[in-house]
Write a structure and sequence with these properties.
With 584 residues, the protein is an alpha/beta fold. The chain has three domains: 200 residues, P-loop containing nucleotide triphosphate hydrolases (Rossmann fold); 143 residues, P-loop containing nucleotide triphosphate hydrolases (Rossmann fold), CATH 3.40.50.300; 119 residues, hef helicase domain (phosphoenolpyruvate carboxylase, domain 3, Up-down Bundle). Helices cover 45% and strands 14% of the residues. The strands form three sheets. A seven-stranded parallel sheet has the order 4-5-3-6-7-2-8, with helices on both faces. The protein has a six-stranded parallel sheet with strand order 9-14-13-10-12-11, with helices on both faces. It is globular, with a radius of gyration of 30 Å.
Amino acid sequence: MRRVVHHTGLTDDAVEARAYQLEAVDEALTGSMLLVLPTAAGKTAVAWMTIAEMLKKNKGWILFVAPTNGLVDQHVRDLKRIIKNIEKYNLISMTGSIPPEKRKNLWNSARIIVATPHVVRNDVLTGNLSLQDCSHLIIDEAHHSTGKHPMAITAELYNSEAGKPLILGMTASPGSKTEIVAEICERLKIERIHIRMAKEPMLSKYLAGLEIQEIVVNVPEKIRQLVTPLELWINGIVRRQRRAGIYVRTGNPSFGGLNEARARAQHAISLGDASAYSSISQIATAMTLNHLINHLLTQGIAAAREFLENSHNTSAESSKSLKKFHKDPRILELKNTLDGMDEIHTKVGTVRRLIRHRLRRDPESKIIVFASFRNTVESLDRALDDLKDVKSVQVVGQSDRSGKKGLKPKQQIEVLDKFREGEYNVLVATSVAEEGLDIPGADLVIFYEPVGSEIRTIQRRGRTGRHREGEVMVLVAEDTRDENAKMSAERKEENMQRAVQRIRRKLPRKNHEDLSNLDNFLVQIGQEEILATDFIIQIRKENRPEIIKIDQNIPGIEKRAGKSLEPSNFRPRGQKGLEEYDKK
């Protein structure tokens, strides 16, 4: 097995030596770079090697930023395992659980700090932290670096304060829109993008296999019956708005069509059309109905009940249309019906069956089920109680909702640790577990629903296949929004690659001599150590496409259509040709 050895930093068992990782390190040390690699392809290993190189050069201190406490904890553990003599660098973590006054004295006590962007932003703005001597900023899950997100603000503060800023942004999913990728690069002051695709020869052989399977489920007739009066209601609203020229899309009512109709009604109001106020109210009701219908069809009873509870709790300070909505006899009747129902959606039974079959096939398997709503997570967890050999646990966000307590970051970390150690073998989670977390041995990931976001799809899918072959099962409710969400995510994922390449071509990259930053890296193959540059050149030769020496194309016989043209057709008018002169 090939291993990377850095004579001042990385331990012998640190990282499997992959040429594409070393190429990324070479570029990352040249200037600020956005690294785009598939999940489990070793983005963090690139960060480890850049850290080791910066430590060797004894250049200031290093800041590693990750969006959640769970990821901060994970990176600290990995760095303690990877970096030689880590004690002398006094690696510490900084999160919101540490009071600001205590953080003030800790910032200057370490050369490697892993932190959430919130505490970095807050402490810089309050004067408790200076980034002037920070030589290297690593940003994990860099796709968050847009808008008002603390990650984007942290990068801007660093670029404005640091003497010689050097940023390494890492993500598997930068986004499908060119303007979003451009904003990330602008906020981070990115000079180059290093992107590799999973199908590339240098990469594909090192990635664990990942089988993705779509499972189409039927929606129970009882749920369809509950939805019927809601569909009649929303269709009536849309018909009226079509006659008014406000809703213009064809086909069934959709969130996109309603959003456009709302913007059209608001424009009509700005032009003095008082009748458009009624349209605004009706469209708001239609949007609420659209959400409720989709919850019933794609999520089930528990999620629909949660949606109604949440919207009712906020209706006191909400619009008149929402208050009127909750007083409508159809909604009151639906609430009473849902309160007396157990979960009957077919997806719940499908999840039970998939987990049961997987554990029968391999009792040591670890399984993650992703669902968008907490009540769905709770109902799934209850539905797994009576399954043999299933030890399930929930992971949800830290905010309290509908009177139910969330999981604080420390509790989330404890649950994930128990899952890693095998105390639990099924993790039922909301989006809090989607991003970045390395959960070894997650053999099966079940999407309770497809998500329309390509970023969330990639992140969810990346929780398996990280260390060995894994499966991804996506549950799609037939004839529902699920089908549109699945196609939307696929389309956006394809667009993502094009968007990154467009921005990559526009960046004014620094002049860089290929492999010039790898002098301190050696690659160990068995007992032999070779220069990293020689290793990469060797791997490039092995993956170079063969050139066919014999032209196997047989030229065809060209046939001229019609009669040949006279020479006079090619001469300017009035000019004579040689054939017009007498031959002597």
